[in-house]
Structures are given as C-alpha cells and as structure tokens.
Amino acid sequence: MDNKNTEENFSAQQRTQDTNLNLTNIDFNSRPINNNEDLLLLNNINNLPPDHYPSYSINTNNQYTTDYLKIGSINIQRGFRTKLNSITDFFTTHNFSILGLTEIGLTQPQLFPTRQPIPIYNPASNNDISHPSGHLTLIKDTNGDPYNDPSSGIGIILNETLTKHLGKIRLHKGRCIEIELHFKNMHLLIINTYIHANNQKKKEIQELYEHITQAIAKHKALPHSQVIIMGDFNANPKGSTAHTPSWKKEIFHNLKRHHLTNTIKFFHDSLLPTRVNKEGSIPTSAIDHIYTTQHIIEHTFFSDVHTINPNLEFTTDHKAPFIIIDRNLFSPNKSLKIQYDLSTYRPSQRKKIKYNYNNMDEEKWVTFTNRSLLHLNKNIQQWLPDAYSQTCPSKYRINKKWKIIKYSIEATKHDKTVPLEPYKQRSHYKNDTPLPVRQLKNKIIVIHESLSRFSKRKLEHTTQASFDLINPRNWDDYWSNWQSIKWNLHNINKLLEMPIFTQLPRSISRQNFRQTKQTIQKGLYTCKELLKEHQLKYDLNNIDKFIIQRNNNIISNQRKMINSIMDRKPRTIQLDRLIITNPDTQEQSLTRCPETIASHVNEHFQTLGQSIQDIEATPRYRNIDDIPPQFRDTYRRSPRIPPTTYDSVLVPITLEEVTSTISSLPNHKASGVSGITYEDIKHLHINFFDFIVNFFNDILTSGTLPNGWNNAHLYPIPKPTDWGNDITNTRPIILLETFRKLFVKIITSRLHKILSNSSILQPNNRAGLSGESTFQPLQHLTHSIEMANLKGRKQELWIGLQDLSKAYDRINTSLLKLSLQRIGIPNKINHLILQLFTNRYNQVITPTGYTPSYKVIQGIDQGEVISPLMWIIYYDPLFAYINTAPISKEDRFTIIVPKKKNIWDSPQNDLPIEYTLSVQGYLDDTTWVAPSLSALNRLLSMAEDFYKIANIKINKDKYRILTNNASLANKPVAIQIQGETWHTTTLGRNDCAKILASIYP
Fold first, then answer.
1. Are 503 and 490 within 8 A, CB to CB?
2. Region Disordered: what ranges (predicted)?
3. Helices 513-556 and 558-565, interaxial angle, to 10°?
C-alpha cells in the first residue's frame, strides 16, 4: 500500500449493516467504575461549581456506574505489540469510550490490518477470564515511511457500543486517522494525529496541517456536524519561538478559525503540561491537546490529564489528555421529561444556570455569608496555605488568590444557598392560554372542516353531478371517511356540558343529509358560545393580573412600569439570523448558520469597521521622539507637577475603603465570565473582605492583574435605528468581572480626587471629575452665544459640533501610555491601567451560546469604570495644544467686557476683561468656536494633525455648523481641512442642535 491517502472499503454487506446501525439511537449501558482515580475525579468534578456533573450510582453488584463518555489520547512511545495488553487494561480500567494512540511505531500495512478486534477480560463484569467479556475495535494507520518516518503510526480504540456507529475511515501517511461516527442528530468526525517532532520536516508538517484543515472544512459542511481533534501536536500554542516556531503554531490558528476550543484550557486557567522533558521527571511541555466544537464543549463535564503509572500500566513520558462528555448528547430522542430529571441534565454549559436573587431573604443571606467563609478557608488551605504571609506577591500567587475567591463564591452559591431559577424550556407558541380555550379553538376548526363536507356545491363539484342525480357509488366514495369525521365530532362531546353529537347517523344518505348538517351547525354555535364564555373569563383574569402586576412594578420594576404606561417595548436583538454583505460584490445574503454568525460577529467586534491592514498599520509610540515634532512639547511631563502628587494612589487599600465601595455598588447587574454578581460580593463574610483587601494590595504592590480578568463577555444591543439583522446596527455592552470593576473603581476614585483638586488637566476638558458636570461647558458656550448677540456689541460667531466615531474603540494604547506619563501617573499605576486594555479576549453572547473567544486588538472597554477618565487623559493633549498654540487673535473668538473700577469714573477708565474660547469638550463631544468660517477651518485643520496621530476618526456626515450670520443661515458652506473639502448646510433660524442634552436654537 502506497503512502497516499487511503480509505477503507467495506463490503456491501458490512456497509448495509453499518448503515442500518447508524440510524439507531446510541444505547449506553452504565459501566462500572473500576478504579479509585476515576471515582476521585468524579468527586472533584462534583466540587466544581456551578455546573452539574456526571452522575454515578451503586448498582445491584454494589459497584459504582457511570453515565458519561470519556475520550482521550496518549503517546505510547512505540513498543505497541508489547504494550497492547497494558493499553487495553488502561482503556477498560479508566472507562474510556475512545482512546487515540500516537507513535505506535508500526509502518508495515501489509502485516497489520487497518481494523482489528481486541478481546477484553474485565473481572468487574465477568469473573470467567477464559471468555472475553466484550470486544474493542482498534483502527490503525501504519502507512508511514519505514525508512524516513519509522516513529509514525497511530491508532484509535473504540468500545463495542460506539463501533456500531462507525462510518468512513480515512488514513493519511501514518500521521492522521479520521473516523466518522453517525447518530440520528449528529455526524461526529474524530481526528487523531501525530505531528512530526522534527522541525526540519517543515514541508511534511505543513502538508499534514493542510490535510487536517481540509478534512475539518469538508466535514463541517454537513448538517449537524461536530468535530473532535486530538493527539500529539508536538507544539505548544503558548510556547516560545525557540521551541515552537511561529509557522508550527499555524495549526492552532486554523483550529481557532474553525471555532474549535482547547478543552484543557477551557476548564483550567492555563494549558496543563503533558510531556516530561529528559532533564527531569516533572511534566513541563503542553504538546498533547484535544480540541472540540462549541456544541460538544457545552455538553462536556470536565477535561484533564491522566498520569500513566509505569509500574502498573506502561512506560511513556507523556500524559493522556481526556474529556468527559454527557452521554445524553448522543440520545436526542430520549424523553425530555426523563432528561430533565437526570442529575446530569444540563441544557448548556455556563449559560442556562441562573440564580434567583429575588427569592433570597435575610435568613438565606446569613447562611450564604457563613458558608462563604467556610469555603474560603477550605480553598486557602488546599491551594495557598500561606496566603496571608508577607511573601512578595507574584503573578502565580495573584492567580491563585483569584482562583480561591472565584471558586469559594461559586461553591457557596452552588451549596444550595442561592435558589436556582427553573430552566425555561423554549416554545414556539404561547402556552399561557387556558387549556379549555385552546381545546375549543381546535375543535371549532374540526367542526368547520366537517361542515365543509356538507356543502352541496362541493359535493356536486366532486361527483360531477347535481345533488339529486349523484349515483350511489360516487355518493359512497364521497362519504367513505364519514366514520372518521363522526369519531372526531363525538370526541367534542367531552368539552360540552350537554352532549350534542350523540345521535349522528351511521352513514350519510339524502334522507338524513339536512338533519345531520343542522346538528353539526348547532354544535358549532354551542362551541362558539362556550368559547366566548371562557375567553371572557380569561380576559377578565388577565386584566386583574396585569393591574396587580403593574402596581407591584412601582416598587419592584419601575422600568417595566414606565414602559407599560408609555406603551414602549424594550428594543432587543436576536442573533439567530444575520445579513452578511460580501465586501467584493456588495451582495447581501441571510444566514442562520450558527458558526457563520459567530465568525461574522467576532470579526465585526474585533475590527469595528476597520480592515486588519489598517489596524496593523496603526503606529506604535515607544517614546516622545516617535511623535510628530509639533506635539512633543505637549507630551512632555509638566515640571509643575510635584513628584509626590500621586503618593495617595499607591498607599495600601484599606478594609474601610473596600467596604464603602462595595456598599455603593448597584444590584441587578449582569456578571462577568465567573458569574459573580454584586449581590454575592455584598453578602460575603467580613473575614472574606480581609482576604479581598489582601488580594487587592498584592495587585497594587506587584502591578500585576490576574489572568482571569482578561476575559469578558460581549452582548450586542441595538442602536436607535432598527437593527434589521445587520450587525453594524448594534453596539457592544462589555460584561467585565465584578471584582475587576471593584478594584478599578477604587483606583479610579483615588485618581479622581487628585485630578479634581489640581489643574493638571486643561480647564476646558474636565468631564466627570469631582465638582464638574455638563453645566460648566454649557455655561461657557451659552455666555459666548449671548455676548456675541449682545445689542451694540454683536459679532460674528461660528460653532462647529463634532461627532467622534467609536472614540473608545479607536484609542491607541501606546499613545495612551505617553498621555499617562505626561500628567505624571506613576509607572506602576500606568502599567496596571495598560494591562486592563491589552491581551484581552471577548466572547459574544448569542442564542446558541458563546462564540469562540477572539482577541481584542484595539481600543479600551466602554464598560470599564476607568475608561471615561482614560479618554479625558488621552484627549487632553489636543486641548493643551490648542490652548497654548500661537493662534492669531483673528482666529480666536474673543469677548471683551468692561469692568468698572469706580462708578463715578468715566467709561474710558473701565478695566477691559478679555475672555477667549476656541474649543470646549465633554468626553467625546467636542464643540469648536470661532469668529469666522475661515478661522473655524483653520482650527479644525490644527485638530486634524492630532486626530491622525491619535487614531481618531470624525463622522463628517454628522458635522453640525451653527452661525449667527443671518445671511448664511440654512445655506451650504464649505468645510476645508488640510486640503480636503466637503459641503454641509448650516442650521436655519428655526432649527435646533442638541449639545450635551441641551437644545440650542
């Protein structure tokens, strides 16, 4: 057999048998747990809140049994023939359903058949070792080159149940096996691969990558397709380029593009090592992986690695990664009621579990508080016994403390202290209508259909004869289904107090035709009258119910009450369908494919309308010398800022500071990835707060954030316009970790106090600081308008209103760093702030679950507490530049007001007070003021230089120009910015403009 791709050809009989078997539901028999390791594993899973876990119960033989599938992969390091019995025992003892084998070292396909049955002898289920208790199926790919690739050869072992669902088998040069398993609701592709360890074989590795990518893409084109890929990749996605070249990591990028998730990384904070280096016995390299599609992840209970005991099993320097999958994933036709009652039933991972805080009372919160301390102490003892020591904080200790906090709160909630909201099954119709109403509506339809048979016109048309001349044969054919009609009518009597359909004739004749029709008409009238009675009773009950509900909403849900009074429906979107525009042809298509929607949504929120090329072309500023010369002095740190200005930001966080901040947190807010809400934090034990203070101070001292704070969820909400299934008509709401927001709120409050009590920021750019509001910029603008129109002193006034496009999303973090250094922010705080906005990963919430995580490559989070302050600091150099630039007096709008020194002096002795205004800002709302249109154009051209280096984009279509020059009101004017010209129309005398929620005529 050559080294090209091969596909096993089954006989017609075998194919027929497989086809018949593939159409049946998978039948799982609970298997015994044969080792303490699996039992301990299940116990550990039980302690992993908040998800449900695989059940195990004692059967009649007093053995624990499982109801899950276990799939894994192991590099056996050759010696396949001598290790086969040990591998079989390992498979059986550890309750594997599928086990991939790599590096089996077989390269002679003529000696080793592709498919081989393996008898198993399991004393747990059969004490007679002379007879096999069952058979496993071993599939091998031994097509490797025996001279150039002697370590190749891979295999897959399946249990007897899954073998019945085995379909096509594809082999590739002893390096890749693809098997298809078919179920009624799923086509599952399992790939086991062994990628070359020698990086010199770049061509062969890239060819194998291409083969795997094509196999996944081809399979995912099938309906209800799912994929699991596993094996020894001989590459670490997070490894250094010295050990794993960037080109070798391409396989992981390809898997991510196909929305496959690394199961180990999903269930742990990081990848787990799976291979022991020659230098020591501790595993250090994570090169064995399992990737699955999102649907399988949602039904996966846990993923971990097995350590192979060389004394009891076989020798290898690898560990075996594995996943545990809910078996109900493969049993779609099982009664839903039975599934709901199972302890393993879980509609979706981390999505449908919802805690009902409205049912919490004082007694339950006391229980929650006490148990939170118990779980905290337990986790500290288990993971970090010296948590309160004076050890210098490190990234490792900070991650451990965050893990302790997260799991302690999750365990407390999972400990039945917070009630769960019942799972609401989706339905395609409203089922709150009373049963009698629904039944009567259905029966009225039945009666109408029955009466239609008594239409003389229909009868004559069907038989092609007048009523009196229809021959007996045609008459009997027409009424051949009368018994069925009669039976349906007879069943309606159950809904009536006085049965009507009791005297229906056995058959229809011309003699009883009229009487039978009248009886049915009478029944129709009776049912309609009865329906009116039930409907009226239902409507009156509904009116009373909604009146009570609206009255209750005055206290419990004011938003719902106001929406009801104003007849306003909350605007939401449903991402179950999406219109996609082809960028080349501009053709639009509607898709309902979840994976296509997830890919398109991720791409939109990652790029936000920009191309990858434009994002990558965004300049990176390492120091002031990288900035254009005219702005370098602006970005230099001001010598008037004392070195001790920010000392109060760096002092340790106190318990009082934490508790006061926590008490100000709002309720009923969405949680982040961990599911921890503000309600949870508020009701923790006081000793738990001590640990939080310790945790926050470690972050402040080290300048390092925990890894878990880099992940967030994103929920799209519609813009004011109708979203129309177009993702561009939405804006993102970022759901960050509540503890992250708590810590950042403390730091932000400290910075606010310093910046509010000093003149570090420009006076016309102080939005949101303590004592500042929209009043100040509106006051300056109003005074300018009033003085420009003052009788006897009238002067021309031009106001330009700018709209910045996606201001927060376009912030250049390298320039933000220089902006922070400009106002003297300490390096440690500077580093902490920048960590909030780098190495971030988001997942979009969709009706089918979360999209695969994508890396955020630009901007800052709008939902972050410190973001408004960061924008002010980032935007402040523009105001400093305009305020200090040598702008001619003719280009600045200037007001001169006389101030009398003495009321008895002549006006010539009055002291002139001069007031100048060019730009006024409040967050991303910028208002430009000039004495002429040409002066306004020159100011905007100066600002454009800053916008280029700051990556700020102006919405030209949303420019609004106001002027008190009556001759130019409601007239087109030319806006000229650095040689670019476009026209806009000034607002007319009767038009209005909205500035900071105030209307200006």
1. no
2. 1-22
3. 130
